[in-house]
Amino acid sequence: MARLHLPPEVETALSEYYTCEFTTVNRAGQPVTWPTVPFYDREEGSIVVTASIAFPIKALNARRNARVALLYSDPAGTTLDDPPAVLVQGDATVSELLEPTRQSLELFKLSVRRQPDSRRFVANPLARRLFGFYFQRLAITVHPRRIVVWPHRDFGVAPTAVELADVG
Q1: Number of H helices, E strands in the chain
Q2: CB-based contact 159:87 (threshold 8 Å)
Q3: With the C-alpha atoms ordered 14, 16, 21, 24, is the resulting torsion angle positive or negative?
Q4: How far is it, in rounded angstroms, from Cα 127 to Cα 120?
Q5: pLDDT band at 54, cuts 50/70/90?
Q6: Would you say the C-alpha torsion 103, 106, 108, 111 has a positive or negative sign?
Q7: Please, are residues 52 and 104 in contact by the beta-carbon 8 Å criterion?
Q8: Does the pLDDT at position 143 exceed 80?
Q9: pLDDT tens digits for 67-118?
Q10: What are phi and psi of 91, to 5 degrees?
Q11: CA atoms within 13 A on the CB side of 165
Q12: Which CATH superfamily is domain 3-167 in?
């Protein structure tokens, strides 16, 4: 998928929110939601979240039913002034990361920047090598189908839809 042409406030929310609520559909057809650390890949026009091999349920759900959603509703930790809430509905693909990728390395850097205490853990070369193998083993790549926005995170008003136009 190509880069998406998104309004600046949406691009900023996707790039700067520390966490989002990631929802999959379980085997019984029920939505299941987890807080997760998203990586917005501007170049690919996708969002990547990871799962560890010890807790693969969100990846297993996404493999079974590719329809997923990410809600960016809480800007805690960011320096954003009155950002919108953004809901991304899309189709997921799941892959196993046996070798580092550009996306997994960027997500690793982002995680360390957003969670400074993790630096102590990854200062050890062995721990750093195992981090990717264990915590970022399953990549869930979301290709947006629909994006809706609530200005000022006001869920009391109707959201606006964002036209998803690909850029070259």
Answers
A1: 5, 10
A2: yes
A3: positive
A4: 10
A5: confident
A6: negative
A7: no
A8: yes
A9: 999 999 999 989 999 999 999 999 999 988 656 666 666 776 667 667 666 6
A10: -110, 130
A11: 5
A12: Electron Transport, Fmn-binding Protein; Chain A (2.30.110.10)
Separation CA 145–CA 70 (nearest Å): 12
Can you give the length of the chain in residues? 168
Q: Is 100 helix (H, G, I), strand (E, B) or coil?
A: coil
Alpha carbons 166 and 68: distance in angstroms, whole number: 20
Tell me whether residue 70 is exposed, middle or buried, using C-beta atoms within 10 angstroms of its C-beta: 0 to 12, 13 to 18, 19 or more: buried
pTM of the predicted protein model: 0.81
Residue 131 binned pLDDT confidence (cut-offs 50, 70, 90): low
Tell me the C-alpha distance between 76 and 63, whole Å.
30
pLDDT average, residue stretch 26-54? 91
Using alpha carbons, select from 93, 100, 97 the residue that is nearest to residue 67. 93
Amino acid (one-letter) located at 13: A
